[in-house]
Design a protein that fits this description.
Blueprint: E1 2-6, E2 10-15, E3 18-23, H1 32-37, E4 47-51, H2 62-76, E5 81-83, E6 89-90, H3 101-110, E7 117-121, E8 126-130, H4 134-137, H5 142-148, E9 151-152, E10 167-170, E11 173-176, H6 185-191, H7 212-221, H8 227-261, E12 266-269, H9 273-280, E13 283-284, H10 286-289, H11 296-310
Parallel strand pairs: 1-4, 4-5, 7-12, 12-13
Antiparallel strand pairs: 1-2, 2-3, 5-6, 7-8, 8-9, 10-11
Helix pairs in contact: 3-11, 6-7, 6-8, 7-8
Length: 311
């Protein structure tokens, strides 16, 4: 049996042999079917699926996106079942399937740490989920989660720099940043040593390289400069300012949810789990589930299906 999480930018697959993440931008017509076909043999005993890719802007509505994802997955795995925010598995499209990946994680982790607070930082967003009562989370849409503070739209790789900071100190001079799409969080985190080049798994804003030099060049462009104009120190100031502010955003959102829910301890997951451990003093779920920490919803929906089949 395999677990699949179909996001808008990435598809993650957890099998008996390992954890696999593929950059799969649905809005650019990425070959989801071809990617999933690689796991056809491992999915012969079943495929448990969650999604959030229905929000990709290649779809006119979330309903259209859900239908397309269900159809595409079932072309490869005819018996695939899809988990919804209603706490049920479905074999056909239904609105409850929209952005149910976080809910599968909450249901799975409730049995492991029922009083905890899950903080899952992915490439694009950060989920902040109190685990005490999964039933109280049923049916929550992304809109409702944004309003409750359970969904923070900032992530490890794909967040545009000006979505987080508006000014930076360059050589002691307060400097506004450009709102152009010159650099992302991946550039800042690679420059700061938080991720390795092979972990920069999304496309770059300029279509160029992913090594440190290219990242610094893109960071310089955020203040409308070439790298020689502001030097490495100037580019690193952009990166440091970004992470300081992004970290404050995450910490503040976590504290707000924690104070309202009383949830404790904090459990860190996602591609950004290492940063969350140091930022929040969180417990790294990787100690419990290994590499699956980077693909928690795919792992979780697989385990939830196994549990349901056993019951």
């Amino acid at each position: 049996m395999i677990g699949i999480d179909v996001g808008g930018a990435n598809v993650k697959v957890v099998t008996g042999s390992g954890v696999h993440t593929h950059y799969c931008p649905l809005w650019k017509g990425a070959p989801l079917r071809d990617i999933l076909s690689r796991y056809r043999d491992e999915g012969r005993e079943g495929a448990a699926v969650v999604m959030s890719g229905e929000l990709a802007d290649c779809f006119s509505t979330k309903e259209e996106g859900i239908a397309w994802i269900v159809r595409t997955v079932r072309e490869v795995f005819p018996g695939a079942l899809f988990y919804g925010t209603d706490g049920r598995f479905h074999d056909s499209p239904t609105p409850a399937l929209a952005a149910a990946n976080w809910f599968a994680a909450a249901v799975y982790l409730h049995s492991l740490c029922p009083g905890g607070l899950l903080v899952d930082m992915g490439s694009t967003t950060t989920d902040i989920i109190p685990l005490s009562s999964p039933k109280s989370l049923r049916g929550l849409s992304d809109l409702a989660r944004l309003q409750r503070g359970y969904l923070l739209y900032t992530g490890l790789l794909r967040t545009p720099i000006p979505a987080v900071i508006r000014n930076v100190q360059i050589n002691g001079v307060p400097t506004p940043v450009s709102s152009e799409y010159f650099a992302t969080s991946a550039d800042a985190h690679l420059a700061l040593g938080h991720i390795r080049e092979e972990e920069y798994t999304c496309e770059t804003p300029d279509g160029r390289g992913k090594d440190r030099e290219f990242c610094l060049r893109r960071l310089a462009r955020v203040v409308c400069a070439d790298l020689p104009e502001i030097g490495e120190d100037g580019a690193m100031a952009v990166a440091a300012s970004f992470w300081e502010t992004q970290g404050e955003m995450v910490r503040g959102a976590v504290q707000t949810v924690q104070q309202a829910s009383g949830a404790n301890p904090i459990l860190a997951a996602g591609t950004g789990s290492r940063l969350l451990v140091s930022l929040l003093g969180a417990r790294d779920l990787g100690r419990d589930i290994g590499d699956a920490v980077s693909a928690l919803p795919a792992h979780a929906v697989r385990e939830v299906m196994r549990r349901d089949l056993t019951c």
